[in-house]
Amino acid sequence: MKVLQILPELNSGGVERGTLELAGYLVEHGHESVVISNGGSMVEALEAAGARHIQMPVHHKSPKALLQVRALRRVLAAERPSILHLRSRLPAWIGYLARKRMDRDLQPVLVSTVHGFNSVNAYSRIMTMAERVIAVSGCIREHVLQHYPGCPGENIHVIPRGVDPEIYNPDHQPDDHWRSKWEEDFPELQGRKLVTLPGRITRLKGHEDLFDIMGKLPAEFHGVVAGGTHPRKQSYLKELQSRLSEMNLGKRVTFIGQRRDMREVLAESSIVVSLSQSPESFGRTTLEALSLGTPVIGYHHGGVGEILRSCFPEGRVQKGDLGRVVQLIHDFAENVPPIQAPGDFTLDRMLSSTLSLYLGAV
Question: What pLDDT, in 10s, does the model give residues 222-236?
Fold first, then answer.
């Protein structure tokens, strides 16, 4: 079987990482794996895993991108894939239109993955128009059913994202070199119980809630914000820093920026919080933290709520109940209830379920 995945680019991100993981898994199981994108930093790793990469400008969010339809149709005719897996909306439209005008006996089976709560409109509908639609969580499946009644329920398959238990497990500890650099970079964190909020700097991630929580905690707790700031969000970052000063919390919360060592940061944390103001489609960092043995307190909605319900129900809190979050931080600092993670949310289960879906479709 030959599988062709298409997405905008192969740089950092959950969609990109999942594409790379699946590409390598297919090769390991004797299948041919091809990825089309505009390229990026992950291409080298993709090719090292035995997959092939075809570079095409399928990333421009403009009508000009549709000029790639004919070029992609030629690629599909030459490659003859069994599966065309659509990973993102613009490339999905290009793939859908390219396949549509092919001879029926040459058309690959269309599979799509709905990775998030995309805006509800005709543009987003493309992700529900495949013959097999993968939803990354139960709440995403409900979102599709609610807003796209033209997508039959039997076509939607919930395949949650997953982690590798060999990489994310309670026995993992940051090594001495990492810890030495951590202490050098952030001396104010030493000897403190770290309350970490992972996520990029946007209004949706709940940084203001974290500040209010830190204002109710004693000085032994220190807030950590782990996430990058897009150039367009610099004004919001300054707004957050001003608010910290107004609350006299400037020395109680540290912004550590975008990190490539999030596994170590999560393992070093005493508690991780998920305070997203809108539901997350899945919540990978919640699962990663729990799998490392770090308790997570999160608002009980979206994918994070599903993970907590399955792996750590004690960490569920109704959105906005900051008093309950503060109480649980105190409780978990003294005693952490058993964490059943990753449970069913494993990388192998995600990959094997996807392969089974492919095999059942061709």
Answer: 999 999 888 888 999
Neighbours of 166 (CB within 10 A): 8
Q: For the segment 132-167, what is each residue's pLDDT rounded down to a tens digit?
A: 999 999 999 999 999 999 999 999 999 999 999 999
CATH of 2-162+346-361, one of 1.10.1040.10, 3.40.50.2000, 2.130.10.10, 3.40.190.120: 3.40.50.2000
Q: What is the DSSP string of 69-100?
A: HHHHHHHHHHH--SEEEE-SHHHHHHHHHHHH
Half-sphere exposure of 333 (CA within 13 A, CB side): 15
Residues β-bridged to residue 310: none
The torsion region of residue 343 among left (phi > 0), alpha (psi -120 to 50) and beta comes to left
Task: Please give the Cα distance from 137 to 141 (Å, whole number).
Answer: 7
CATH code matching the domain that covers 176-334, chosen among 1.10.10.60, 3.40.50.2000, 3.40.50.10540, 3.50.50.60? 3.40.50.2000
pTM: 0.91
